[in-house]
Amino acid sequence: MPLSVRLDKKTDSLLQQTASTLKTSKAEVIKKSLSDYCARVLSESRKRPYELIKDLLDKRGSGEGDLSARGEEILRERFRRKT
Question: Could you read off the pLDDT of 22-46 as tens digits, one per residue?
Fold first, then answer.
């Protein structure tokens, strides 16, 4: 199915360089890139909330004695470090 996309000069140059490096067409790079991107987005959207933050939770504990009093603050701090 035909699709038309307007690219800025920087993106077009990047696309051309990538296609040249891979010795393929710009269309093939676009198709592969869109496929990979969409698969990643759909995979992330299917994750449960715990799966999205499990790397922020430490099974050994926080190492801080005031976790019950500062739990929300500690978790927010970890979120900031992740992004």
Answer: 999 999 999 999 999 999 999 888 8
Mean pLDDT of the region 44-57: 77
Nearest CA to 63 among 74, 79, 50? Answer: 74
Judge if pTM exceeds 0.70.
no
48: which 2 tokens?
């449960």
Residues shown for the chain? 83
Q: Indicate if the alpha-carbon torsion angle 42, 44, 47, 49 is positive or negative.
A: negative
Domain ranges of the chain: 9-45, 49-82
